[in-house]
Specification:
The complex is a heterotrimer. By secondary structure, chain B is an alpha/beta fold. Chain B has ten helices and ten strands. In chain B, the strands form two sheets. A six-stranded mixed sheet of chain B has the order 6-7-8-3-9-10, sandwiched between helices. Chain B has a four-stranded antiparallel sheet with strand order 2-1-4-5, with helices on one face. Chain C has two domains: 1-31 and 163-238, no CATH class; 33-150 and 242-273, no CATH class. The chains are: A mainly alpha, B alpha/beta, C mainly alpha.
């Protein structure tokens, strides 16, 4: 479910970075890393644990395939929503930097899609209220499965939304969502069961380790209606914002659905960012005949593109080797 | 009277809701003593060491390090004088490169970066690991990690060194090298180990702990050759003492 | 030619998928600690350049293949300057490329406006799919070049300069440090499990909880020991010092300005077409 850089437009990436940054700043404030010095090493090592544990293949009974652990839900059950969120950011950043799993620009989206829903919603909306009256194996299992399914559904929806708002795919939004959601329903169920198995094991071995576990109630603070509304409000505002961004900037995607409705292909894309982008393109273009759309010169354009590309590559490679050569000369003399 | 010394009087320790792990321990060491701490699994060796650095605080009796009592208010002072080398080097070495790890302690004590670098180099020289200065921790062998663990402690220039199973998982050559380096360090040392040959090579004095009590305390050569005493307390003669 | 040489991997051989991951971390560390000229450029400069590059790449209009193609100069040049193997970097596309293709594959069928390409009519969707794939490849390559020439600690130093809280940076570095330790542990556990269950492909659901749970408890114990080790070395909850790196020097500034100029030029006009039209 890691988003790639290519799938997000700068505006969407920026917006998601900003949202994730706000959630992270709030978490830093709530966790008060400096007040309890033990949190930093515990979060650091737990991040590594999630990374490593996600490499384990858990066989799904009755099928040939395997599932993995859901990091966000697990961490928030152990460390609470805020510390869990910050830990997940570390994991996602390392996945992105070291393994190119998710991109640098899309990191904000990935943090939101995977860490925010799992840690904030999974913990505050499901885990905490369910565990308030005491824990049991059944409750832990139910909370894990529900939490994972909810967070994966929201995550998948956000992926579709972010891609759509970025104007990347011609696939209509409804089709994309219809494709993403059911798959992630199944994945969520499996991840939830695996996560539940691990949490139940911890509950039986050392229940005090679980967030809101035995004796933890008084410290955990009460889950308030205000908090729920605030989080739901922020999420709703964000989703709404993305949708409107999508609607204004994505005439091409809508066109397809309009075409289906009206049966006409003549409806021209109009308005929105892309028109402006197109006109900027034309005015900044040095070649007046640089036109992408079925003009006579298109063949010529392709030809000059080929030549130009070759020249640019040749110049670039040549310049680099010359530069390298002189650097080494200077070093040796 | 010297200023480097450890004094434990009537110290007992138990974890919450558990039986006593250490009972009525009285122990003194000073100056450049090197003390081997031996005993069967679960005898309380690690607990003993952890009490000295204030990681197990709910003991009864009194522990004083260089006249400073070990209690929650004095931990910073105590810990700047005692270095503790963990059994598992991967827990001891938590930074990513050798330099960063060895520099951790001096930086925490607020030294300027120039001084930090000097301390790092000094510590690496003392452990013969100068060539590893820029290396990544996870690329190193077990022997190298152990030496760097010791260097991370030496960089805070402690008076006292505590070591928990330093020779565990080392091959013979690395173990030999470790013994050589331990002998070159002129600190007050307490080495807890099952490796009795290592104790024989590095410590003049040995304390035998059994079931939470000090069963014997005396010159290493006497204790480690006393077959009856060792076997009564779940240990065996060092390999080099056994006759075909 | 260095561009296509396959550099030697680390000595230790791992057989499994987890082993592959450990090997990849080792390999990236080996690359970033080389004594190359590009490796010496200030981490902040490289980080900011990479972000700007990716931003510029993804901001291209979806049919602008020619304009986007010009942006190949940056990865091309850095691959040569840093003497990195291009082939090695390709496997990093394994996560991104399938995803991008999945999203873009239908474009040619959905966007049927006609475009003449060298006299042959093609659907505009082909162009948008091409740009999408190019964007995916370019952005992955740029990130690869950043991390292959900059160690993660140095990158953290750059993050510190951007006012990321020190505790968060320390936490990040600890995660990085213990990933290899715990991966090796996972490798041992799963190998031991699979050796006794040779016909299983993964972990049977009866062992789900206990296998990962044991590892979890041990990791928490380790976290506790790491904390003790930090405490004993004077840690009081606020550590984030790094070895002093100077602020960007003259060479770093020149490198930055040069690439910014190149990016600006290639973003503003389709250089390839301009040059091509001269001939």
């Amino acid at each position: 479910m890691h988003m790639a850089d290519a799938l997000v437009a700068p505006a969407v990436a920026g917006m998601m970075y900003a949202s994730s940054a706000v959630a992270a700043a709030y978490s830093v404030k709530k966790v008060r890393l400096n007040a309890d010095p033990k949190k930093v090493p515990v979060m650091g090592v737990m991040g590594a644990f999630v990374f490593a544990a996600q490499m384990i293949n858990f066989t799904i009974p009755g099928t040939g395939s395997s599932g993995h652990l859901c990091g966000g839900m697990l961490l928030s059950a152990l460390l609470g929503p805020y510390a869990g969120f910050l830990t997940m950011i570390g994991v996602l950043a390392i996945q992105c930097l070291l393994f190119a799993d998710g991109g640098l620009l899309a990191l904000g989206c990935n943090i939101w899609n995977m860490a925010f829903y799992g840690c904030f919603l999974g913990s505050l909306l499901i885990w905490k209220p369910m565990m308030r009256q005491g824990m049991s194996k059944a409750k832990i299992t139910a909370a894990s499965v529900l939490g994972c399914m909810l967070t994966l559904q929201l995550g998948a929806f956000s992926v579709a939304l972010e891609t759509f708002a970025s104007g990347i795919t011609e696939l209509p939004f409804a089709a994309f969502v219809g494709f993403m959601q059911p798959i992630h329903l199944a994945i969520g169920l499996v991840e939830g069961l695996i996560t539940a198995a691990v949490l139940v094991f911890v509950y039986e071995a050392r229940p005090e380790l679980l967030f809101c576990g035995a004796g933890g109630e008084k410290k955990a603070g009460r889950f308030s209606f205000k908090h729920t509304m605030a989080i739901l409000g922020v999420s709703a505002a964000l989703i709404g914002g993305l949708l409107s961004l999508a609607a204004s900037s994505h005439p091409d995607g809508l066109e397809w659905s309009i075409e289906k409705i009206t049966g006409s292909t003549e409806l021209e894309a109009s308005g929105g960012i892309y028109d402006r982008a197109g006109s900027i393109q034309e005015t900044t273009s040095l070649l007046p005949d640089y036109a992408w759309k079925g003009s006579d010169s298109a063949a010529g354009t392709a030809f000059s593109g080929l030549i130009g590309g070759t020249v640019v590559v040749a110049v670039c490679v040549g310049a680099c080797y010359i530069f390298q050569f002189f650097r080494k000369e200077r070093k040796t003399t | 009277m010297s200023h480097i010394h450890i004094d434990m009087e009537n110290v007992s320790f138990a974890y919450e809701k558990g039986e006593e792990i250490l009972r009525q321990i009285t122990f003194h060491a000073s100056e450049t003593d090197s003390v081997g701490l031996i005993g069967a699994n679960g005898a309380g060796k690690s607990t003993f060491l952890k009490m000295l650095v204030g990681l197990n605080l709910n003991f009864t009796g009194s522990i004083r390090i260089e006249e400073i009592p070990v209690q929650s208010g004095t931990l910073a002072q105590i810990r700047s004088r005692i270095g503790y080398v963990f059994q598992d080097s991967d827990s001891q070495l938590f930074m990513n490169t050798v330099y960063e790890d060895v520099a951790f302690a001096p930086r925490n004590y607020g030294l300027p970066e120039k001084e930090v670098e000097k301390r790092v180099e000094q510590a690496l020289r003392m452990t013969g690991t100068m060539h590893l200065k820029e290396k990544q921790i996870y690329k190193m062998s077990g022997g190298e990690k152990k030496l760097i663990s010791i260097a991370t402690i030496l960089s805070m220039t402690p008076d006292i060194l505590l070591m928990d199973e330093p020779s565990i998982a080392l091959d013979p050559k690395n173990r030999r090298n470790l013994i050589h380096i331990l002998n070159s360090l002129e600190h007050l040392k307490i080495i807890a180990s099952h490796d009795l040959d290592l104790i024989l090579d590095t410590c003049e004095r040995t304390v035998l702990i059994s079931q939470g009590r000090i069963a014997a305390d005396g010159p290493t050569k006497e204790i480690l050759t006393d077959q009856v005493l060792l076997e009564e307390n779940g240990l065996e003669l060092p390999l080099c003492m056994r006759k075909g | 030619m260095e561009l296509f040489s396959v550099s030697g991997l680390s000595e230790r051989v791992y057989m499994s998928k987890i082993g592959g991951t450990i090997r990849e971390i080792h390999y990236m560390e080996t690359l970033s600690s080389r004594d190359q000229w590009v490796n010496q450029i200030h981490p902040l400069v490289k980080f900011v350049l990479t972000v700007i590059y990716i931003l510029a790449v993804v901001s291209f209009y979806k049919y602008d293949v020619a304009g986007l193609a010009g942006f190949a100069v940056y990865p091309l040049a850095v691959f040569i300057l840093a003497e990195l193997s291009f082939l090695d970097s390709l496997k990093r596309l394994r996560f991104v490329l399938p995803l991008v293709c999945l999203v873009g594959i239908l474009n040619p069928f959905l966007d049927k406006q006609e475009v003449m390409l060298a006299g042959v009519p093609v659907s505009a969707g082909v162009l948008s799919m091409t740009t999408l794939i190019m964007k995916g490849v370019f952005s992955v390559l740029a990130s690869y070049l950043l991390i292959a020439t900059t160690s993660l600690e140095k990158l953290c130093y750059a993050l510190g300069m951007l006012h990321i809280p020190r505790a968060a940076v320390t936490q990040f570095l600890l995660t990085y440090r213990y990933i290899t330790v715990l991966l090796e542990e996972v490798d041992r556990i799963t190998q031991a499990y699979l050796l006794r269950a040779p016909r299983q492909k993964g972990i049977h659901f009866k062992a789900w909880g206990s296998l990962a749970g044991q590892l979890l408890l041990r990791s928490l114990d380790r976290a506790n020991e790491v904390y003790e080790s930090m405490l004993l070395r004077g840690y009081q909850g606020d550590y984030g010092y790094m070895r002093e790196h100077a602020v960007p020097g003259r060479q770093d500034r020149r490198y930055f300005i040069f690439w910014m100029a190149v990016f600006a030029l290639f973003r503003a006009c389709p250089v390839i077409l301009v040059i091509g039209s001269i001939f």
